[in-house]
């Protein structure tokens, strides 16, 4: 059964504004930790949250920097934290790897999804594509925050 996404999450961070530059602290040029992410307007029947951070400006196509699911429905993901199960990013690692563009200014999409289920059966080897397939019929709401970075 397909769920119609009729709600939008409001995603913010104290580290950067939407479509503004991300502090180097949260990149490969800094401490390389995730920024805090605040999530508002979470539907009341949400069972879990998921997050995908990717860069559509990467030279070889969209590159995934972070994938995590089974996050308890709460209004904040704290800086330098992993409150859910982290899957495999484009670096082949199960963690946040911050912006690190080889050339030019890139856009980093921090996408958060409110799900009507938990995805506890997914193994840590799950990547962005597999997570998107698993979430497909379970997304109640989603939102994104876009950060920029240039080295």
Which word captures the global form? globular
- Going by CATH, the homologous superfamily would be PEBP-like
Q: Residue share in helices?
A: under 10%
Output the CATH topology.
Phosphatidylethanolamine-binding Protein
**Structural domain tally:** 1
Q: Count of DSSP E strands?
A: 10
Distance between the termini: 44 Å
For the record, the CATH architecture stands as: Alpha-Beta Complex
* Computed structural class: mainly beta
Q: Ranges with pLDDT <50 over ≥5 residues?
A: none
> Beta-strand percentage?
35-45%
**Main sheet summary:** 7 strands, mixed
Written as H for each helix and E for each strand, in order along the chain, the element string is EEEEEEEEEHE
| Radius of gyration, taken over Cα atoms and rounded to an integer in Å | 14 Å
Mean pLDDT over all positions? 94
The CATH class is identified as Alpha Beta
Keywords: Protein kinase inhibitor
Protein name: YbhB/YbcL family Raf kinase inhibitor-like protein
InterPro entries: PEBP, PEBP-like_sf, YbhB_YbcL/LppC-like
GO molecular function, one term: protein kinase inhibitor activity
Write a brief structural summary:
The protein is mainly beta. It has 1 helix and 10 strands, in the order βββββββββαβ. Pfam families: PBP.
């Amino acid at each position: 059964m397909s769920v119609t996404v009729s709600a939008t999450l409001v995603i913010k961070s104290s580290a950067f504004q939407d479509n503004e530059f991300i502090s180097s602290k949260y990149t490969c040029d800094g401490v390389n930790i995730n920024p805090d992410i605040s999530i508002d307007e979470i539907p009341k029947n949400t069972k879990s949250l998921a997050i995908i951070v990717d860069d559509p400006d990467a030279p070889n196509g969209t590159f995934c920097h972070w994938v995590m699911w089974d996050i308890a429905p709460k209004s904040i993901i704290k800086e330098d934290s992993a409150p859910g199960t982290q899957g495999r990013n484009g670096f082949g690692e199960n963690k946040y790897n911050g912006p690190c563009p080889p050339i030019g200014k890139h856009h980093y999409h921090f996408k958060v999804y409110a799900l009507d289920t938990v995805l506890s059966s997914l193994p840590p080897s799950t990547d962005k594509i597999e997570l998107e397939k698993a979430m497909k019929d379970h997304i109640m709401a989603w939102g994104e925050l876009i950060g920029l970075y240039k080295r």
